[in-house]
Write a structure and sequence with these properties.
Length: about 190
């Protein structure tokens, strides 16, 4: 189940939660974030490589490339047994911005996008089938949990792909992480 919780940025204990997809979409649209659900006509094997995954979603990727002039597309896949899972997690946990907007589509698994817009923090639990866009220069961080299990298609408007400018803020440490957020939902 996809979920959104909106908090005042100085009150990580006082959030308003949404689990209805259209309500999540409506709330995120207010801050310029696109949130959609996609489906694939293909059942992908667990060991699907980048070419297989990108091929399964080729029509949707091409539509987005034409609409937003994306110049690069890749896939990121992490599983609980990945030897560098902790390193990858730390890389994305610090608040940062990108000069271009980023789009992520969850082929499988889930992750927590955390957006810091004005005086609010939006925690967005994305799951299989969810597509989220983060507007350029939006402060955010991403948490995949201690034992990540996800495959994401990432689209970029620059040929360089993922390039982050870290804000130096410690705000990410004050809000629920992926595992804490999941525990609160149950």
């Amino acid at each position: 189940m996809s979920a959104l919780t909106i908090y005042p940025d100085d009150q990580p204990q006082d959030g308003e939660q949404y689990t209805d997809f259209s309500a999540i979409q409506t709330q995120l649209a207010k801050i310029g974030v696109k949130f959609e659900q996609w489906t694939s006509l293909y059942e992908l094997p667990a060991d699907a490589d980048q070419a297989t995954v990108l091929g399964a979603y080729a029509d949707s990727i091409e539509r987005l490339k034409q609409q937003y002039h994306f110049q690069s597309v890749d896939m990121m896949k992490l599983n609980p047994d990945h030897p560098d899972k902790a390193v990858f997690r730390q890389k994305f946990l610090a608040e940062h911005i990108h000069e271009d907007f980023e789009v992520r589509f969850f082929v499988e698994g889930r992750g927590l996008f955390c957006l810091h817009v004005d005086d609010k923090v939006y925690l967005v639990l994305c799951e299989q089938g969810d597509l989220i866009s983060v507007p350029a220069n939006t402060k955010h961080w991403f948490d995949m949990g201690e034992n990540p299990k996800f495959t994401c298609i990432r689209l970029f408007t620059t040929p360089d792909g993922w390039v982050a400018n870290f804000t130096g803020s410690e705000i990410a440490k004050t809000f629920p992480n992926f595992d804490q957020y999941l525990a609160q939902l149950q």
